[in-house]
Protein: P-loop containing nucleoside triphosphate hydrolase protein
Organism: Rhizopus microsporus
Amino acid sequence: MSVIAHVDHGKSTLSDSLVSKAGIISSGRAGEARYMDTRKDEIERGITIKSTAISMYFEMSEEDIKEIKGQKTDGTAFLINLIDSPGHVDFSSEVTAALRVTDGALVVVDCIDGVCVQTETVLRQALGERIKPVICLNKVDRALLELQLDKEELYQSFSRTIESVNVIISTYIDEALGDCQVYPEKGTVAFASGLHGWGFTLRQFANRYAKKFGVDKEKMMTKLWGNNFFNPKTKKWSTKATDAEGKPLERAFNMFVLDPIYRIFDSIMNFKKEQTATLLEKLEITLSSDEKDLDGKALLKVVMRKFLPCGDALLEMICIHLPSPITSQAYRSALLYEGPTDDECAIGIRNCDPNGPLMLYVSKMVPTSDKGRFYAFGRVFSGTVRAGMKVRIQGPNYVPGSKNDLAVKS
């Protein structure tokens, strides 16, 4: 899968949360390390220039596996190959190279800026390559700390951004993909703060409340978004914003999801020590002795990270909603292979067959420290690579039938 977005919407920072969840960097450094920016110029400028890949291993619980619909599952472990791509329009060729070898994309959108030019460009590229998107609204911490939005304003801002994304998806959708629009109540939208390392989808909150109130998780998820209001007096749900006496009711998303977050922000940022302590007890968050001495933003980061760990939310969303190679190659093979659709190579790609003919797609060349030498970075679409195998390398100018730009190497 790849991470795509407009420039400076926080792709590399968000990738840190995923990398730290996989145990590659410590959670304390996530958000500041920008682990995927490896080149010197990337670190100096604070931008991604080349796309980089990393493999991560992740295990899910048996219960969560049941959420995966329409795909076969085998065991509870996942291997995720993540490619972090640049957002600058000048480097869009890097994005294309990254997208060609992935099956799903995490589209990051800054919840304050909303959908920008490059968001639309990369999303269009992804849909053109038949890649299924999931969305992450990033920088929620800024909406709370800098803009000081109230709950309803924040909900409306989220809602507008999601609507803009869905308009783009419905405009450029490839019919082979089916319905790819994203909905918070279905769990395909995450809300996060990459810098602070916390994030959530509605699943986390639905899980929590389903246990607490003994209600069905799926039902709870649909209630947590849109025009659903809960009346605490009558303990009943309604779709109207006022109760029988005409008093305003609070939206369920604001009440059940945003309220705990706002309370944590309020008590910590305004140094209300006692209130913070009771909140932590209620939310079952324990702090180590070092962490108890923190205050302000440093404490906020630690608490929010424990309350809503970003890596968990994003990896769950990725595993549940993005397709596996077996699922995606069935409908992507037509774009990946130019030959006849019924020859053994096409069938091998379509079935993602490890015993089929070897088909390897090289998406980019990575320079090595030796002058003039490159590593070929690619993905196996069918067959199995073994050391010493003979492969036919077809260059960019290769024409089927001729020997131009063709090399046979082992």
About this structure: The CA atoms of residues 20 and 29 lie 8 Å apart. The chain has a mean pLDDT of 76. The domain at 207-308 is CATH 3.90.1430.10 (Yeast translation eEF2 (G' domain)). The first helix runs from residue 11 to 21.
